Amino acid sequence: MKKTIALLTGGTTGEWVISVKSAATIAQNLDPDKFDVYKIMLTKQGWFYEPADSVRIEIDRNDFSLTIKGHKITFEGVFIAIHGEPGEDGKLQGYFDMLGIPYTTCNALTSAVTMNKGYTKAIVQDIPELHVAKSAQIFKHSPYQIEQIKKDLKLPYFVKPNNGGSSIGMSKVSNQYDLTSAIDKAFAEDTQILIEEFITGREFTVGVVKLGGKIIVLPATEVETGKEFFDFEAKYTPGVATETTPANIKDDTRERVVRIATAVYEKLNCRGVVRIDFILGPEEGDFYFIEINTIPGQTATSFIPQQVAAMGMKLNDFYTALVRETIG
Protein backbone atom coordinates (compact mmCIF):
# COMPACT_ATOMS: atom_id res chain seq x y z
CA MET A 1 0.00 0.00 0.00
CA LYS A 2 1.28 3.43 -0.94
CA LYS A 3 1.51 6.02 1.81
CA THR A 4 -0.09 9.43 1.28
CA ILE A 5 2.53 12.01 2.25
CA ALA A 6 2.36 15.80 2.46
CA LEU A 7 5.61 17.48 1.47
CA LEU A 8 5.50 20.80 3.28
CA THR A 9 7.51 23.66 1.79
CA GLY A 10 7.72 27.47 1.83
CA GLY A 11 7.71 29.22 5.18
CA THR A 12 7.49 32.79 6.42
CA THR A 13 11.17 33.83 6.35
CA GLY A 14 13.76 34.64 3.68
CA GLU A 15 14.75 30.98 3.72
CA TRP A 16 11.58 29.99 1.83
CA VAL A 17 13.56 30.19 -1.44
CA ILE A 18 15.87 27.41 -0.24
CA SER A 19 12.89 25.46 1.10
CA VAL A 20 11.26 25.40 -2.35
CA LYS A 21 14.50 24.05 -3.87
CA SER A 22 14.83 21.46 -1.09
CA ALA A 23 11.27 20.27 -1.68
CA ALA A 24 11.97 19.91 -5.41
CA THR A 25 14.92 17.58 -4.67
CA ILE A 26 12.87 15.56 -2.17
CA ALA A 27 9.89 15.27 -4.55
CA GLN A 28 12.16 14.01 -7.34
CA ASN A 29 13.59 11.35 -5.05
CA LEU A 30 10.50 10.06 -3.23
CA ASP A 31 9.62 6.78 -4.93
CA PRO A 32 6.20 7.15 -6.68
CA ASP A 33 5.68 3.40 -6.30
CA LYS A 34 5.83 3.79 -2.51
CA PHE A 35 4.38 7.26 -1.89
CA ASP A 36 1.60 9.52 -3.13
CA VAL A 37 3.18 12.93 -2.53
CA TYR A 38 1.26 16.21 -2.34
CA LYS A 39 3.45 19.29 -2.22
CA ILE A 40 1.87 21.79 0.17
CA MET A 41 3.02 25.42 0.11
CA LEU A 42 2.92 27.35 3.38
CA THR A 43 3.10 31.16 3.17
CA LYS A 44 1.91 34.12 5.21
CA GLN A 45 -1.09 34.24 2.87
CA GLY A 46 -2.18 30.65 3.44
CA TRP A 47 -1.48 26.92 3.16
CA PHE A 48 -2.38 25.41 -0.18
CA TYR A 49 -1.91 22.65 -2.72
CA GLU A 50 -1.38 23.80 -6.29
CA PRO A 51 -2.01 21.01 -8.79
CA ALA A 52 -0.59 21.45 -12.29
CA ASP A 53 -4.04 21.33 -13.91
CA SER A 54 -6.02 23.45 -11.46
CA VAL A 55 -6.10 26.50 -9.23
CA ARG A 56 -4.65 26.36 -5.75
CA ILE A 57 -6.67 24.48 -3.13
CA GLU A 58 -6.59 25.61 0.50
CA ILE A 59 -5.66 23.13 3.24
CA ASP A 60 -8.27 22.64 5.96
CA ARG A 61 -6.12 23.43 9.00
CA ASN A 62 -8.68 21.89 11.38
CA ASP A 63 -7.39 18.44 10.44
CA PHE A 64 -4.70 19.20 7.81
CA SER A 65 -6.78 17.73 5.00
CA LEU A 66 -7.33 18.54 1.36
CA THR A 67 -10.54 18.27 -0.64
CA ILE A 68 -10.12 17.80 -4.39
CA LYS A 69 -13.26 17.55 -6.56
CA GLY A 70 -15.32 16.50 -3.57
CA HIS A 71 -12.81 13.86 -2.46
CA LYS A 72 -11.21 14.41 0.97
CA ILE A 73 -7.53 13.51 1.27
CA THR A 74 -5.90 12.95 4.66
CA PHE A 75 -2.20 12.37 5.19
CA GLU A 76 -0.41 9.48 6.88
CA GLY A 77 2.66 11.61 7.43
CA VAL A 78 4.34 14.93 6.68
CA PHE A 79 7.80 15.47 5.23
CA ILE A 80 8.66 18.92 6.61
CA ALA A 81 11.05 20.80 4.29
CA ILE A 82 10.63 24.30 5.75
CA HIS A 83 13.84 25.93 6.94
CA GLY A 84 13.45 28.49 9.69
CA GLU A 85 10.04 29.55 11.02
CA PRO A 86 7.56 27.83 11.41
CA GLY A 87 9.06 24.50 10.26
CA GLU A 88 12.27 24.39 12.24
CA ASP A 89 11.25 26.09 15.49
CA GLY A 90 8.73 23.54 16.80
CA LYS A 91 5.50 25.33 15.85
CA LEU A 92 4.47 22.94 13.08
CA GLN A 93 5.66 19.95 15.08
CA GLY A 94 3.36 20.95 17.95
CA TYR A 95 0.46 21.38 15.51
CA PHE A 96 1.00 17.92 13.99
CA ASP A 97 1.44 16.38 17.46
CA MET A 98 -2.00 17.71 18.42
CA LEU A 99 -3.49 16.23 15.25
CA GLY A 100 -1.67 12.92 15.73
CA ILE A 101 0.07 13.12 12.34
CA PRO A 102 3.68 11.86 12.29
CA TYR A 103 6.44 13.90 10.64
CA THR A 104 10.06 13.50 9.55
CA THR A 105 11.81 15.94 11.90
CA CYS A 106 12.82 16.35 15.53
CA ASN A 107 9.94 16.78 17.98
CA ALA A 108 8.51 20.15 19.01
CA LEU A 109 10.70 20.62 22.09
CA THR A 110 13.99 19.72 20.41
CA SER A 111 13.10 21.86 17.38
CA ALA A 112 12.29 24.88 19.56
CA VAL A 113 15.38 24.56 21.76
CA THR A 114 17.85 23.98 18.90
CA MET A 115 16.59 27.08 17.05
CA ASN A 116 18.15 29.01 19.94
CA LYS A 117 21.93 28.82 19.52
CA GLY A 118 22.67 29.93 23.08
CA TYR A 119 20.35 27.37 24.71
CA THR A 120 21.71 24.60 22.48
CA LYS A 121 25.30 25.34 23.48
CA ALA A 122 24.31 25.24 27.14
CA ILE A 123 22.91 21.71 26.70
CA VAL A 124 25.80 20.19 24.72
CA GLN A 125 28.77 21.87 26.39
CA ASP A 126 29.53 19.03 28.82
CA ILE A 127 29.81 16.36 26.10
CA PRO A 128 33.29 14.76 26.24
CA GLU A 129 35.78 16.03 23.61
CA LEU A 130 33.47 18.89 22.60
CA HIS A 131 34.24 22.59 23.11
CA VAL A 132 32.07 25.70 22.72
CA ALA A 133 33.27 29.23 22.06
CA LYS A 134 33.04 31.73 24.92
CA SER A 135 30.01 33.94 24.31
CA ALA A 136 27.50 36.47 25.57
CA GLN A 137 23.76 36.32 24.92
CA ILE A 138 21.84 39.60 24.86
CA PHE A 139 18.18 40.54 24.42
CA LYS A 140 16.78 43.45 22.43
CA HIS A 141 14.38 44.71 25.10
CA SER A 142 16.65 44.11 28.13
CA PRO A 143 19.60 46.24 29.18
CA TYR A 144 23.08 44.99 28.33
CA GLN A 145 26.53 46.44 28.95
CA ILE A 146 28.47 46.67 25.71
CA GLU A 147 31.67 47.67 27.52
CA GLN A 148 31.41 44.58 29.73
CA ILE A 149 31.03 42.37 26.66
CA LYS A 150 34.22 43.89 25.23
CA LYS A 151 36.02 43.13 28.50
CA ASP A 152 34.72 39.56 28.76
CA LEU A 153 35.33 38.45 25.16
CA LYS A 154 38.45 38.60 23.00
CA LEU A 155 38.36 40.05 19.49
CA PRO A 156 37.43 39.14 16.84
CA TYR A 157 33.77 38.34 17.57
CA PHE A 158 31.00 36.66 15.64
CA VAL A 159 27.67 38.43 16.14
CA LYS A 160 24.62 36.45 15.06
CA PRO A 161 20.87 36.19 15.59
CA ASN A 162 20.19 33.55 18.20
CA ASN A 163 17.33 32.03 16.22
CA GLY A 164 17.23 31.20 12.52
CA GLY A 165 19.67 29.76 10.06
CA SER A 166 21.48 30.41 6.79
CA SER A 167 23.75 32.99 8.47
CA ILE A 168 21.35 35.87 7.77
CA GLY A 169 22.17 38.90 9.95
CA MET A 170 25.60 37.56 10.94
CA SER A 171 28.77 39.68 11.16
CA LYS A 172 32.41 39.16 11.98
CA VAL A 173 33.75 42.03 14.10
CA SER A 174 37.51 42.65 14.08
CA ASN A 175 37.40 46.18 15.51
CA GLN A 176 35.63 46.84 18.82
CA TYR A 177 34.13 50.06 17.43
CA ASP A 178 32.15 48.02 14.87
CA LEU A 179 30.38 45.97 17.54
CA THR A 180 27.39 48.31 17.92
CA SER A 181 26.52 48.25 14.18
CA ALA A 182 26.91 44.45 14.11
CA ILE A 183 24.51 44.16 17.06
CA ASP A 184 22.00 46.41 15.27
CA LYS A 185 22.25 44.24 12.14
CA ALA A 186 21.58 41.06 14.13
CA PHE A 187 18.71 42.66 16.08
CA ALA A 188 17.06 43.44 12.72
CA GLU A 189 16.62 39.64 12.39
CA ASP A 190 15.92 38.57 15.97
CA THR A 191 15.20 39.81 19.49
CA GLN A 192 18.03 37.70 20.96
CA ILE A 193 21.59 37.64 19.70
CA LEU A 194 24.76 35.74 20.45
CA ILE A 195 28.22 37.34 20.51
CA GLU A 196 30.94 34.69 20.33
CA GLU A 197 34.71 34.71 20.34
CA PHE A 198 36.07 33.80 16.92
CA ILE A 199 37.56 30.31 16.73
CA THR A 200 40.51 29.78 14.41
CA GLY A 201 40.48 26.56 12.46
CA ARG A 202 38.93 24.60 9.59
CA GLU A 203 35.16 24.63 9.16
CA PHE A 204 33.17 21.43 8.68
CA THR A 205 29.60 20.22 8.61
CA VAL A 206 28.28 16.71 9.11
CA GLY A 207 24.87 15.10 8.71
CA VAL A 208 23.53 12.74 11.35
CA VAL A 209 20.46 10.54 10.91
CA LYS A 210 18.74 7.64 12.61
CA LEU A 211 17.82 4.87 10.18
CA GLY A 212 16.71 1.39 11.12
CA GLY A 213 16.95 2.44 14.77
CA LYS A 214 20.69 3.15 14.45
CA ILE A 215 22.38 6.57 14.52
CA ILE A 216 24.48 7.06 11.37
CA VAL A 217 27.02 9.87 11.00
CA LEU A 218 27.45 10.76 7.33
CA PRO A 219 30.86 11.61 5.81
CA ALA A 220 31.83 15.14 6.90
CA THR A 221 32.24 18.05 4.46
CA GLU A 222 34.99 20.64 4.76
CA VAL A 223 33.92 24.15 3.76
CA GLU A 224 36.48 26.68 2.54
CA THR A 225 35.55 30.17 1.43
CA GLY A 226 37.48 33.28 0.42
CA LYS A 227 34.92 35.33 2.35
CA GLU A 228 35.37 36.26 5.99
CA PHE A 229 32.97 33.48 7.00
CA PHE A 230 30.44 31.06 5.56
CA ASP A 231 27.51 33.48 5.12
CA PHE A 232 24.25 33.21 3.16
CA GLU A 233 25.98 34.14 -0.12
CA ALA A 234 28.74 31.59 0.40
CA LYS A 235 26.18 28.90 1.24
CA TYR A 236 23.93 29.39 -1.76
CA THR A 237 26.00 31.03 -4.53
CA PRO A 238 27.83 28.53 -6.72
CA GLY A 239 31.59 28.99 -6.75
CA VAL A 240 31.84 31.16 -3.64
CA ALA A 241 32.78 28.25 -1.36
CA THR A 242 34.78 25.08 -1.94
CA GLU A 243 33.16 22.01 -0.40
CA THR A 244 35.08 18.76 -0.04
CA THR A 245 33.10 15.60 0.71
CA PRO A 246 34.31 13.42 2.31
CA ALA A 247 36.60 15.82 4.15
CA ASN A 248 40.32 15.18 4.11
CA ILE A 249 40.91 14.47 7.80
CA LYS A 250 42.89 11.88 9.73
CA ASP A 251 41.24 8.57 10.61
CA ASP A 252 41.37 9.23 14.35
CA THR A 253 39.83 12.69 13.79
CA ARG A 254 37.04 11.12 11.74
CA GLU A 255 36.35 8.65 14.56
CA ARG A 256 36.25 11.53 17.06
CA VAL A 257 33.79 13.45 14.84
CA VAL A 258 31.53 10.38 14.76
CA ARG A 259 31.66 10.04 18.55
CA ILE A 260 30.89 13.71 19.22
CA ALA A 261 28.19 14.04 16.52
CA THR A 262 26.46 10.91 17.83
CA ALA A 263 26.57 12.27 21.39
CA VAL A 264 25.11 15.63 20.28
CA TYR A 265 22.28 13.85 18.41
CA GLU A 266 21.48 11.77 21.49
CA LYS A 267 21.81 14.59 24.03
CA LEU A 268 19.45 16.85 22.07
CA ASN A 269 17.01 13.94 21.53
CA CYS A 270 17.12 14.42 17.75
CA ARG A 271 15.06 12.60 15.17
CA GLY A 272 15.26 12.39 11.40
CA VAL A 273 18.25 13.97 9.68
CA VAL A 274 20.11 16.92 11.20
CA ARG A 275 23.34 18.73 10.34
CA ILE A 276 26.01 19.79 12.81
CA ASP A 277 28.43 22.62 11.96
CA PHE A 278 31.77 22.61 13.75
CA ILE A 279 35.33 23.92 13.63
CA LEU A 280 38.48 21.87 14.15
CA GLY A 281 41.29 23.83 15.76
CA PRO A 282 44.82 23.90 14.33
CA GLU A 283 46.38 20.47 13.67
CA GLU A 284 42.89 18.95 13.81
CA GLY A 285 42.86 19.76 17.51
CA ASP A 286 39.85 20.82 19.57
CA PHE A 287 36.35 20.22 18.17
CA TYR A 288 34.24 23.39 18.55
CA PHE A 289 30.47 23.11 18.21
CA ILE A 290 28.96 25.93 16.13
CA GLU A 291 25.30 25.03 15.65
CA ILE A 292 22.84 22.34 14.66
CA ASN A 293 20.28 22.52 11.85
CA THR A 294 17.31 20.24 12.45
CA ILE A 295 15.94 20.72 8.90
CA PRO A 296 19.08 20.95 6.79
CA GLY A 297 18.91 21.99 3.14
CA GLN A 298 18.15 19.31 0.58
CA THR A 299 18.82 21.25 -2.63
CA ALA A 300 20.75 19.43 -5.34
CA THR A 301 24.01 21.03 -4.11
CA SER A 302 23.28 20.92 -0.35
CA PHE A 303 25.52 19.11 2.10
CA ILE A 304 23.19 16.23 2.98
CA PRO A 305 22.72 15.00 -0.64
CA GLN A 306 26.51 15.33 -1.09
CA GLN A 307 27.18 13.28 2.03
CA VAL A 308 24.58 10.64 1.22
CA ALA A 309 26.27 10.18 -2.19
CA ALA A 310 29.71 9.97 -0.52
CA MET A 311 28.35 7.23 1.73
CA GLY A 312 27.41 5.28 -1.41
CA MET A 313 23.66 5.54 -0.91
CA LYS A 314 21.07 6.69 -3.44
CA LEU A 315 19.00 9.70 -2.39
CA ASN A 316 15.84 7.78 -3.28
CA ASP A 317 16.76 5.00 -0.81
CA PHE A 318 17.82 7.56 1.82
CA TYR A 319 14.49 9.42 1.76
CA THR A 320 12.54 6.14 1.73
CA ALA A 321 14.44 4.98 4.83
CA LEU A 322 13.97 8.39 6.48
CA VAL A 323 10.19 8.31 5.92
CA ARG A 324 9.95 4.72 7.21
CA GLU A 325 11.97 5.59 10.31
CA THR A 326 10.01 8.72 11.26
CA ILE A 327 6.54 8.25 9.78
CA GLY A 328 6.35 4.46 9.76
UniProtKB/TrEMBL annotation:
Taxonomically, the superkingdom here is Bacteria
Question: Where do the ATP-grasp domain residues begin and end?
Answer: 117-324
- The broad enzyme category this protein falls into is ligase
Note describing how the cofactor binds: Binds 2 magnesium or manganese ions per subunit.
Give the record's GO biological process terms: cell wall organization; peptidoglycan biosynthetic process; regulation of cell shape
Ligand binding (Mg(2+) 2): E291, N293
Q: Which cofactor does it need?
A: Mn(2+); Mg(2+)
Chief location of this protein? cytoplasm
NCBIfam families referenced in this protein's UniProt entry, alphabetically: D_ala_D_alaTIGR, PRK01372.1, PRK01966.1-3, PRK01966.1-4
Q: Which family does it belong to?
A: Belongs to the D-alanine--D-alanine ligase family.
- The protein's name in its UniProt record: D-alanine--D-alanine ligase
Provide the species name.
Answer: Pedobacter duraquae
